[in-house]
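[Discussion] Sanity-checking designs against the backbone

I'm trying to build intuition for which residues belong where. Below is a structure token string of 181 positions. I'd appreciate it if someone posts a full sequence so I can compare it with mine line by line.
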């Protein structure tokens, strides 16, 4: 049945459009055309455009936070290695989608709440790894903030540099934050 696609496929396509062109471009008719279906397929899965937006935010949280944390925890055991793996994953999976969601959140209250929740989860994860590394809670909290905001900032700067070079810089910054003192 060509006219009925899964909600997951609609969300996946909408995430791609969001990453490429921003939230204003996430519209039902162009998505339906891109997917080769009618708008009726959309309304089978979503009550309205806002319902799709809610799905986008939940999927972004899952992909960019929960799945990343799980991947880091499965990849290695040592806190230092987990922080290095996290840094590498940020550049593998972050970038355009993260920038687009943050831009959306700058003018949408619901998106802003989800970004705040995601930031809180990510920050707590980084802080916990720094504490496990042996830093005192206050020091870990300050360095977690520095690391987290620098990783977010890297997603918005140095865009002409290769991903490899940006990862090298981020890993060098991490080593400074892991140093005693």
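Best answer:
Here's mine. Compare freely.
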């Amino acid at each position: 049945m060509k006219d009925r696609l899964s909600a997951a496929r609609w969300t996946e396509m909408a995430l791609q459009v969001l990453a490429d062109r921003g939230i204003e471009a996430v519209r039902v008719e162009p998505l339906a055309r891109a997917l080769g279906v009618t708008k009726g397929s959309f309304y089978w899965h979503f009550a309205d455009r806002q319902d799709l937006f809610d799905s986008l935010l939940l999927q972004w949280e899952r992909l960019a936070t929960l799945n990343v944390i799980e991947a880091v925890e499965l990849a290695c055991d040592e806190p230092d290695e987990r922080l290095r793996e996290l840094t590498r994953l940020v550049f593998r999976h972050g970038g355009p989608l993260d920038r687009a969601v943050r831009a959306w959140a700058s003018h949408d209250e619901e998106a802003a709440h989800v970004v705040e929740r995601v930031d809180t989860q990510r920050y707590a994860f980084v802080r916990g790894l720094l504490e496990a590394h042996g830093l005192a809670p206050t020091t870990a909290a300050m360095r977690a903030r520095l690391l987290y905001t620098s990783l977010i900032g890297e997603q918005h700067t140095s865009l002409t540099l290769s991903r490899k070079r940006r990862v090298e810089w981020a890993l060098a910054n991490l080593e400074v934050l892991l140093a005693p003192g």
